[in-house]
Amino acid sequence: MELIDQHTKKIMEGCKERARDAGLRFENETLEYIVTNRDLLELSPKLMIPTLYDYWVHDVEVIKEKRRYELYPSNPYETVINTRPVISFYNDNNPDWLNVMIFYHVIGHIDFFQNNLYFRHTWDFDFTGQALSDKRLIARLRSEKGRWVDYLIEFARGIDNIVGYHQELSRLDRPAPTEASRRLDYYFDVFLQTEKKAKVHEYIKEIERYNEFMRTLGALGAKAFFAAVIAKYPEFEALYEKSQEKKPPKPFDLLQFFMDHSPLLNKDENLWMKSILQVVRKTSLFFQPQIRTKIMNEGWASYWHEKLFLQDDRIKGHEVDFARVNAGVTAMPRVGLNPYALGMRLFYFLEEIGDKGKYDPAFRRLSNIKEREDFDHKTGKGQDFIFNIRKTLCDYLFINNFIDQDFVTRNKLFVAGRRLNQSRGVIEYFVKSRKAEDYRAMLNAALYHPPHITIDAEKSGNGSLYLVHRFEGKGLVKDYIANTMLGIEYLWGAPVHLETSDLGEAPSAGDQPIYPFGPPVTQGGEKQKIKRWQRTLYTMEKRKLTKKVISYHSA
User: Measured between alpha carbons, how far apart are the two ends of the chain, in Å?
Assistant: First the structure.
């Protein structure tokens, strides 16, 4: 692995100048490395972070990828990571015209990393430096504690997908409350509703009274309002002061909860274990936004590499070469999902919408197809529109806000189904739906969506831990429950309960089945077993897993 030569670096700097002129914003310092196929195979399991801590699973992945490469050799054009400075990796045999295209794509990624709010918690530090420090820490602990370090890493990584990512973002973006705002929040949100149990009309009247104070007295309105409150409710001040007593912050996630409250981890001889959990948690938090913005990130980079490359005078004579490579990257498959293609087309679509003012309510009220096609207010705000989308959204919001029937129809998108052709004995694909809502549902099913698991303090008793999985129409993967709960039991140091939802057969009483949700499905005159979602309690105690049904979902 080595830095690119000065000739290639000059091409990159030229791309940066043109990208800034087009409106992209990013820090100037970047590092570009030439890597071999062997380097890529060894870096991929570490998510392209050279300084990430060592772990046996990484070695297994390297061996697997080497064998796969022998069968299916392929080379990525580039890989870029969100560090300070940004680091990107390239093959050593790219011609200059291809480097121009690739550099524009990388710059699109850099702009996205450094301006999308879902990456906000990664902006203030260099992760490669932090990872190197963590790597040295784990190496030292491994030399002292041996295999227990790897056990802890494995147990922690079993639940690092449910870290409190959104809570971390909210903590960073939430403005620090002032004394006046805290007093106001307590009065309206707690005192009136909980202490005084004010009726709705009384609550609204009090809000109007506060607004009247603010209108008539300006900056002194709040002070005068609370003087009147204290005159009416002398106990308010004492209750407010008591509410402001410092309370320990609620943990964001299970890993943080263990570090704060686990009886095992908080023993003096086990305090070193907490540093392992902290490393795993920080690493997971750093990579959360990348998996949540895959379609937007790749679409944004593809949009800009196409737009800027075609305007660049350095690619004359290579237009056909570019078309061939670009088609391979951004072609829309008929079956499956290409995030480069979908994201790029959606940004082009939204730019047109912004330019024509189609987010005007007048356009939304139109039902005539011809009128909708001819609608054009010529606002010229398309670029501003997509830059704002790039800043504020993730894949879920991007898809569910902007993939409508117009977009699906224009790009001839559809949901494909599979069926067995019995006469030919083959699986065939067919067009199942061309509706936008069905296409969105297919995309949503493919998005990253970790389970939502909380701690029930009331049911956690006698030292045990009670976890509740919020059912969202999809159950946990049963193959992973036993090993994951084994790790949780070890980290907690006591029995662990997990309440979740499973698909199970309808309950029975004696030899007769009970169908609380209606009669069973029948086929061919024979009763078939039916399955229903049921609340199940898993218990891991002394490394043994048991389960029992505790209730049934309503029909």
Answer: 59
Cα–Cα distance, 86 to 504 (Å, whole number): 49
State the CB neighbour count (10 A cutoff) for residue 284.
19
The residue type of 410 is R
Looking at residue 123, its pLDDT comes to 92
The per-residue b/e assignment along 128-165, b for 16 or more CB within 10 angstroms, e otherwise, is bebbbebbebbeebbeeeeeebbebbebbbbbbebbbb
The structure's pTM equals 0.83
Considering only CA atoms, which of 44, 19, 42, 34 is closest in space to residue 94? 34
| 3-class DSSP state of 13 | helix
**DSSP summary character for residue 220:** G
Tokens coding 494: 């006591």
Residue 337 has pLDDT above 60, yes or no: yes
- For residue 38, the model assigns a pLDDT of 81
Q: Which residues, other chains included, contact 37 with Cβ-Cβ below 8 Å and sequence gap of 6+?
A: 69, 73, 75
Sequence-distant (6+) residues with CB within 8 A of 471 are: 500, 501, 533, 535, 553
- The Cα 205–Cα 211 span in angstroms is 10
Q: Where are the beta strands (DSSP E) in 66-138?
A: 78-81, 86-90
- One-letter amino acid at 228 equals A
pLDDT band at 74 (very low <50, low <70, confident <90, very high): low
State the angle between helix axes of 127-145 and 148-157 in degrees (0 to 180), rounded to the nearest 10: 130
C-alpha to C-alpha distance for 442 and 143, rounded to whole angstroms: 48
The pLDDT tens digits of the residues spanning 222-242 come to 889 999 999 889 899 888 888
